[in-house]
Amino acid sequence: MDWDKQVKVKLDSLVKKIPVFHRHITEEAVIKRSEENAAARNASLVEEKDVVGAFFADVPSPFYSMMVRLLDQTGFDYKKYGFPKNGKKP
Fold it and tell me: DSSP letters along the chain, please?
């Protein structure tokens, strides 16, 4: 599936900030879920909302605050998609 170029650059930047021993699994999981999110929208392009949804759906609770910090640092505007829901992990 094709990706919005800016979104892919931001994701790559975010992944580089994740501790080395979690990078590969995070990247694989987020790419897979992002593409599933885009497909569920019947879209042919992965967009920011798909990546944001992937992170909020799959990140384990112990890494939640780090995820939010990294999303902020890399320019993902998760708040415009309604995350976090009620200030908590879904």
Answer: -EE-HHHHHHHHHHHHTS-HHHHHHHHHHHHHHHHHHHHHTT-SEE-HHHHHHHHHHH--GGGHHHHHHHHHHTT--GGGGT-SBTTB--
Q: Rounded to two decimals, what is the model's pTM?
A: 0.91
Instruction: For residue 41, give its domain range.
Output: 2-81
Examine the pLDDT at 13 and tell me if it is beyond 50. yes
Q: Is residue 11 part of a domain?
A: yes
73 lies in some domain: yes
Inside any domain, residue 87: no
